[in-house]
Amino acid sequence: MGNHSDDARKTSSVVVTSHEEGKETFPNPGLPPHAPRLTDVDPHKAKSAERQVSLLFVISILGAILFWVAYFGIKIGGEYYDVMNPEPTNALRLQNLLLGLGIAFSMFGIGIGVVHWARTLMPDHEMVEYRHAVSAEADRAEAQEIVETIIAESGIKRRPLLRNTLIGSVILAPLTFVTFLRDLGPADPSVLKHTMWDKGVRLVRDPSGTPIKASDVTLGSAYHVLPENLSSLSHDQGYLNEKAKAVVLLMRLDPSDLKVSAGREDWNVDGIIAYSKVCTHVGCPIALYEQRTHHLLCPCHQSTFDAADECKVVFGPAGHALPQLPIAVDSEGYLVAQSDFHEPVGPAYWERGKHVKEMAGETK
């Protein structure tokens, strides 16, 4: 039986060994036949497609213009908008809507325009490029030839309307994002060194403006608070900017859970602590408080701070602890600030140590 199986294996036509000669070869099927598009055979269709692409590029340009009109033209609490609507919140909503629409149209127009251009006007025939030996001079000449071929086949030279609208959209669309760089922070970071907090300023609830007594803050509770003197500012005087810098989270922990460093022993009132609500990563508002772990969480990039350990960073991209507001109790039992923050609030994207030293010197 064993010999018979071996003989059958040797004579079977199904078994093909690697050293067999005369292997079967398959002919090259070549490229499939090219089916011309309507724009390839009908000049009117090609002209219509060119107008459509140019219109999409114009939409991109108009979107960028809409963005800048909203960004620079709508002033929150300023003379340009208050005539129509005195509510700054409505102005912010309108501005955000127009900014979003401007960027959307700008990106949509240029993106769809390029795709439509490629599908209707650029050559779509398939081609084969064979590999060859590498030569610096030959490769340079070939690269130049490829670029010239692409320019010629794209039709950008003989279609000035398409070319000019493309140039306009390519220049303007990215500038909408560059404009946002102005809002990454103030040109002069020193404006973040000082807020509306000062000695004796009462802590009030946001948004009611009600002063807070120490007896009102129960164990485990958390409040969003503002300085009482903030209400003296109008929107024209920078109310929103000052509010963004001064907003604070007030919590009450068991005093035995607090880790207090030297020099901060009297910054809390029987476990009541106050920290800046502005994340030290990119300035998002911190709004989530986990009572069991005493953790504060920034919803933007998940930076986590330990409120029991002077709001030091325990997770996430933030590089510094949240600045603490020293607080005390006045003669009527209301919580008040002992001073301003002892360090700048907000993102630490400048030389923080220098400003801390300057503020320490000013405090003295």
Automatic annotation (TrEMBL):
The chain crosses the membrane at residues 53-74, 94-118, 161-181. Residues 1-10 have a biased composition (Basic and acidic residues). PROSITE patterns: RIESKE. The keyword RNA-binding does not apply. It is found in: Cell membrane. Residues 1-44 are annotated as: Disordered. Residues 245-336 form the Rieske domain. It comes from the Bacteria. GO terms for cellular component: plasma membrane. The keyword Transport applies. It is a multi-pass membrane protein. GO terms for molecular function: 2 iron, 2 sulfur cluster binding; metal ion binding; monooxygenase activity; oxidoreductase activity, acting on paired donors, with incorporation or reduction of molecular oxygen. Keywords: 2Fe-2S, Cell membrane, Disulfide bond, Electron transport, Iron, Iron-sulfur, Membrane, Metal-binding, Oxidoreductase, Respiratory chain, Transmembrane, Transmembrane helix, Transport. InterPro entries: QcrA_N, Rieske_2Fe-2S, Rieske_2Fe-2S_sf, Rieske_Fe-S_prot. Iron-sulfur subunit of the cytochrome bc1 complex, an essential component of the respiratory electron transport chain required for ATP synthesis. The bc1 complex catalyzes the oxidation of menaquinol and the reduction of cytochrome c in the respiratory chain. The bc1 complex operates through a Q-cycle mechanism that couples electron transfer to generation of the proton gradient that drives ATP synthesis. Belongs to the Rieske iron-sulfur protein family. This is Cytochrome bc1 complex Rieske iron-sulfur subunit. It comes from Rothia amarae.
